[in-house]
């Protein structure tokens, strides 16, 4: 039984990619809704903690650059994660107007648990795939996310792209 639109009849790879990207987005949302992953931490909080894990303690501007988001958006995400006890925010000792954000012990532990659960689920979904096919999908997801980052993110050369981690471990 097909649960998605058929690919375009013209066999245009860009058209197929466009349709399949829409289906993939829907499937990620389906997987998220059918799990308890988002109960404590939504995708934004997860990516925020992944960025902090990669970057170390960071200010809002650095996180915004790493995530390809506006600082005000990241500020709201930080406030939401802080209210859940997933991270801490303290004044920067060099510039008390800025805040430095760090994962809390609980946030770091929860992010690791969530990452492990997402990896297990992804491994189950792709269990019948060959190692070569899984490696190829990982490369293609990475290339796609790098193309998006190159086009839309600023300062991406200085930081690892947490969005790539999300694509490698779909929700």
TrEMBL record:
Name of the protein = HTH marR-type domain-containing protein
Annotated region (Disordered) at 84-109
Q: Where is the composition biased (Basic and acidic residues)?
A: 89-108
Q: Name one GO molecular function term.
A: DNA-binding transcription factor activity
One of its GO biological process terms is:
response to stress
Taxonomic superkingdom:
Bacteria
Entries under Gene3D superfamilies matching the protein: Winged helix-like DNA-binding domain superfamily/Winged helix DNA-binding domain (1.10.10.10)
InterPro entries documented for this protein: HTH_MarR-typ, MarR/SlyA-like, WH-like_DNA-bd_sf, WH_DNA-bd_sf
Outline the extent of the HTH marR-type domain: 11-146
